[in-house]
């Protein structure tokens, strides 16, 4: 000690040594302080944990009491309507809203309010197969106007709008939906015919954008000989997916019995979907 | 075989890229498969075309068949021509049945009654489109096969796509024939032109992606969500603004690819607005000016302006209304009235 004090007062080496010593002391003190602080933190945490566990214990006790009381009164186990977490509630809400929207979509006409009006979605289907969807963006501020849409140009949208849009929006949507669904159905039948029965069709299938006039030739076999039939299907009602006029004709040199077949086919085309009619021809010929 | 027909076939084959010649000849169907096998498609095009002409000679090709090959070429490469869109009107409300045979008969009859020297060819395609090729002559000369007009018409629609070549004088006649054949009353040219025929169709048939607000849940993958990976040391300072721009852009342009247009032209006939003290223009006349935007793909480049930081979002409606208004040629005049705002002519 004495030596140190001496060093402190007089020689530079001593000063450095003294500084080192002070540094070491300070370091020690700091370490100790840190330790104490950590200890205190730990203590506080443990105390908090104790509180938590006490709370839990109280809760469980209360539950057990409740359960016991409940068991006295009723049969069976009373399941505690445990408070569902906020997250679970939100998830359930989202799921049920999505389901509701899906239901609306499946009904064929659904809509969403927009800043300036409503946006409708008309989805089409034919005999259980869902086909394309079309949209209409309507403005409703002043008079009802179509702002934009994705309806095919050959659907008489303007005509239908002129008749019903201002007066009866429901009727407008219903009529438009009928047009779109019928068109989707006609197109589906023509596509199915081309895809699945192309071997029976001679040459090209003449069709048009609305699929309301189909003209083609197909083969009919009778007594191991094939005869070409020509058919012209006219769909006069744009809201209908079955033809209103059917003309089935065979070549002049065909046997008389075929005239009956032609008449039968003509009748079938009027009543049944096109591809289904062809399916029944195939099965009839096989039998 | 006519010498002019042979030359025409030779020149048509020369236009086709070498790799596509065989496929196109197959589509044409005029030469048999055995005949096609005899051609060496690896030699230079000059020789290939000579071989083809030789075979056509054997089959006695006439101008009708040669015209079909030309239609096939133009159908596969429509973007080599400039197409204009025309709109037809009718007042009747009867349901259209569109009988193709009827249409072709009426068209030919109307056109030929006015001008005998024309070559008319039709070809139908799966998407209900009818392609019409017309080679024009004069009352005294045979049709010039190198001066052709093309018409593309989708049944039961009011739109016709026409690519006229040099002879604009035949246009009224062509329009008349179209109106008669399709049972419409009149026809006028729209302010919509492009090289890309399919994009023009997308615009008028409303086949491009419009962003409709629906509740039908779209899978999240459809939307372009920028990946979050990357250097964590880099912080996006203006993330909010970037997201706002993306959102606005999506509302205006939709999610899908834009129709392909090469230019938009704005003809200004507006008053020059200057500091009254400066009094630049003495006469109170509109300042005539033409602004033309050009691009290999105009709408895509407009769509990328705001995200690239080169323009504010939302863009001017004069630019963004192009697909919806189905026009890329505009005339802007002063709005007559109290407020001297811009007025776009219909």
TrEMBL record, chain A:
Coiled-coil segments: 19-70
Localization, UniProt: Chromosome, Centromere; Nucleus
A GO-annotated cellular component: Mis6-Sim4 complex
Source species, domain of life: Eukaryota
A Pfam entry, by short name: CENP-O
Protein's UniProt keywords contain Protease: no
Keyword RNA-binding tagged: no
Keywords: Centromere, Chromosome, Coiled coil, Nucleus
Family: Belongs to the CENP-O/MCM21 family.
Protein name (database record): Centromere protein O
Organism expressing this protein natively: Aptenodytes forsteri
Automatic annotation (TrEMBL), chain B:
Major localization class: nucleus
Protein's recorded name: Centromere protein N
GO cellular component terms, A-Z: chromosome, centromeric region; nucleoplasm
Listed Pfam families: CENP-N
PANTHER family cross-referenced by the UniProt entry: CENTROMERE PROTEIN N
UniProt keyword terms in alphabetical order: Centromere, Chromosome, Nucleus
Record family assignment: Belongs to the CENP-N/CHL4 family.
Alphabetical GO biological process terms: CENP-A containing chromatin assembly; chromosome segregation
Protein's cellular compartments: Chromosome, Centromere; Nucleus
Signal peptide region: none
């Amino acid at each position: 000690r004495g030596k140190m004090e001496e060093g402190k007062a007089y020689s530079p080496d001593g000063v450095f040594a003294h500084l080192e010593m002070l540094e070491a002391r300070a370091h020690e003190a700091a370490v100790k302080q840190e330790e104490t602080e950590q200890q205190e933190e730990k203590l506080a945490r443990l105390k908090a944990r104790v509180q938590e566990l006490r709370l839990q214990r109280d809760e469980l006790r209360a539950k057990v009491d409740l359960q016991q009381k409940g068991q006295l009164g009723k049969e069976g186990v009373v399941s505690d309507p445990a408070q569902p977490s906020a997250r679970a509630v939100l998830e359930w809400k989202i799921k049920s809203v999505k389901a509701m929207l899906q239901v609306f979509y499946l009904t064929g006409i659904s809509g969403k309010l927009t800043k300036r009006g409503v946006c409708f979605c008309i989805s089409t289907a034919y005999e259980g197969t869902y086909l394309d969807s079309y949209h209409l963006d309507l403005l409703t501020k002043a008079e009802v106007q179509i702002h934009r849409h994705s309806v095919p140009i050959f659907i008489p949208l303007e005509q239908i709008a002129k008749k019903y849009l201002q007066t009866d929006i429901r009727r407008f949507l219903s009529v438009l939906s009928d047009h779109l669904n019928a068109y989707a159905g006609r197109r589906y039948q023509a596509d199915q015919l081309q895809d699945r029965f192309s071997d029976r069709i001679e040459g090209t299938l003449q069709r048009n954008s609305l699929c309301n006039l189909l003209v083609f030739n197909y083969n009919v076999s009778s007594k191991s000989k094939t005869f070409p039939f020509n058919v012209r299907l006219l769909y006069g009602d744009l809201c209908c997916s079955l033809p209103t006029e059917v003309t089935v004709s065979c070549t002049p040199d065909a046997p008389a019995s075929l005239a009956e077949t032609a008449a039968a086919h003509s009748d079938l085309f009027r009543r049944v979907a096109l591809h289904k009619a062809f399916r029944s021809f195939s099965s009839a010929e096989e039998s | 075989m006519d010498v002019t027909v042979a030359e025409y076939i030779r020149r048509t084959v020369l236009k086709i890229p070498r790799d596509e010649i065989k496929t196109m000849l197959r589509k044409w169907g005029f030469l048999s498969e055995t005949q096609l096998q005899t051609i060496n498609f690896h030699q230079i095009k000059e020789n290939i075309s000579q071989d083809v002409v030789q075979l056509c000679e054997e089959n006695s090709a006439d101008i009708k068949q040669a015209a079909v090959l030309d239609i096939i070429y133009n159908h596969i490469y429509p973007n080599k021509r400039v197409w204009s869109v025309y709109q037809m009107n009718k007042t009747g409300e009867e349901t259209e049945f569109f009988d193709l045979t009827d249409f072709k008969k009426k068209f030919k009859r109307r056109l030929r009654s006015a001008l005998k020297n024309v070559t008319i060819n039709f070809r139908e395609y799966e998407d209900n489109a009818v392609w019409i090729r017309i080679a024009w002559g004069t009352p005294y000369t045979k049709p010039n096969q190198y001066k052709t007009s093309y018409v593309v018409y989708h049944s039961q629609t009011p739109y016709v796509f026409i690519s006229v070549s040099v002879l604009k004088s035949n246009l009224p006649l062509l329009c008349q024939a179209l109106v008669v054949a399709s049972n419409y009353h009149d026809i006028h040219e729209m302010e919509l032109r492009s090289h890309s025929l399919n994009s023009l169709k997308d615009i008028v048939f409303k086949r491009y992606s419009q962003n409709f607000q629906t509740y039908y849940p779209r899978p999240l993958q459809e939307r372009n969500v920028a990946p979050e990976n990357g250097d964590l040391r880099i912080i996006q300072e203006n993330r909010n603004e970037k997201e706002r721009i993306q959102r606005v852009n999506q509302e205006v342009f939709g999610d899908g690819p834009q129709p392909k247009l090469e230019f938009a032209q704005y003809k200004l006939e507006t008053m020059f607005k200057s500091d009254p003290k400066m009094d630049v223009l003495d006469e109170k006349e509109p300042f005539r000016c033409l602004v033309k935007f050009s691009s290999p793909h105009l709408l895509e480049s407009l769509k990328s302006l705001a995200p690239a930081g080169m323009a504010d979002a939302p863009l001017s409606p004069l630019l963004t209304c192009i697909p919806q208004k189905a026009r890329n040629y505009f005339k802007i005049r002063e709005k007559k009235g109290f407020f001297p705002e811009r007025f776009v002519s219909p």
